[in-house]
Design goal:
disordered C terminus, tRNA processing, Oxidized Rhodanese, domain 1
């Protein structure tokens, strides 16, 4: 097992100097493949990841694998080698970023009905999917006046950052995407569509669905936003803002370093600097998105938790129920992450 070195699936050498490389490597990966024996694969993966002290989430389904994990450079390289010993995961690509601390607290390896939830059993990227466009060619596609660029992610992700000129489906979860297509797109009017998402996986299904609905020319950004930011120089980038990620970093900037957003404890929405200046932002309690929706019971519970945290900080020790509170919040975030992806 060797450490990750600059190469195909690591940051572009031209950009390496401007990136603050921390000791923790975060790897995002997926592959659509016919996958039988998911429980057995889960068992082997879980054992290996525990041995390597990796943390994060890996989802398995009959349609393939989808994961984001964090650990040492050696552990991430070892995981890629381990996966590739199974011919079904041959040539699986890892998209890498770096941080000083792991953005995950625990490890989850789970079997699900889908590795990304669209909710339509007849949409199969292995049979039909959009034309992949390399990040180096993406700007040219965006510049075509006939191109309609669609951000297939959710509205809160879109608000954190997107490509200039792209439209949002205004969804709260990916399974709402087909309704957006039915309501707002027309195969006769929208003849050239360019789609993108965080790592590429949602576009695999979204583009397959569009092709099924009769859209003639459907393109998808190969490797997603993360790969585009990885290989594109800032002066050539069409990306505007930061990129939301489903971990404690909340967002990454154009250099794939941890961004400026924080996350609301109550509703888990990403919060900008401006939103954190609002009178409705109360750390550990509420934010402008959920302040008016909290019940008195929830307010009391969150206020008590914040009080315990502050008391514990004064005494230089963990507050009572800290682990339980963190686990509850983490479970909420984990469920939201799997649903929204």
């Amino acid at each position: 097992m060797t450490a990750i070195d600059p190469g195909k699936d690591t940051p572009h050498p031209a950009n390496a100097s401007k990136r603050a490389r921390g000791n923790i490597v975060i790897a995002a990966f997926y592959k659509f493949v016919r996958l039988s024996g998911c429980d057995e694969v889960r068992s082997r993966l879980l054992d290996f990841c525990k041995l390597q002290q990796l943390k994060g989430t890996i989802l398995l389904a009959s349609e393939g694998i989808n994961g984001t994990v964090a650990g040492s450079s050696e552990a991430i390289a070892g995981l890629q080698e381990f996966l590739q010993t199974d011919e079904r995961f041959a040539e699986i690509a890892f998209k890498l970023s770096y941080a000083d601390e792991t953005p995950f607290r625990r490890l989850y390896v789970r079997v699900r009905a889908e590795i990304v939830t669209l909710g339509l059993s007849d949409v199969d990227p292995l049979q039909l999917t959009g034309t992949r466009v390399a990040p180096e060619e993406w700007n040219t596609l965006l510049d075509d006046p006939e191109t309609l660029a669609i951000d297939t992610r959710n509205q809160f992700e879109y608000e954190v950052g997107t490509f200039a000129g792209a439209i949002s489906p205004q969804t709260d979860a990916f399974h709402e995407f087909p309704q957006f297509v039915r309501d707002r797109l027309d195969p006769q009017k929208h003849r050239k569509i360019a789609m993108f998402c965080t790592g590429g996986i949602r576009c695999e299904k979204a583009s397959a669905y569009l092709l099924q609905q009769g859209f003639a020319a459907v393109y998808q950004l190969d490797g997603g936003i993360l790969r585009y930011l990885e290989v594109t120089e800032p002066e050539q980038s069409r990306w505007d803002g930061e990129c939301f990620v489903f971990d404690t970093r909340v967002s990454v900037d154009c250099d794939l370093n941890p961004g400026s957003y924080e996350q609301c404890f109550a509703c888990r929405r990403p919060l900008s600097d401006a939103e954190r200046q609002s009178d409705k932002y109360q750390p550990g309690l509420a934010c402008p998105h959920c302040y008016d929706e909290l019940t008195p019971e929830q307010r009391a519970s969150f206020l008590e938790r914040r009080r315990q945290v502050e008391l514990a900080a004064q005494r230089d020790r963990d507050h009572v129920g800290a682990d339980m509170s963190e686990r509850k919040a983490e479970k909420q975030q984990q469920k939201a992450s799997e649903r929204q992806r």
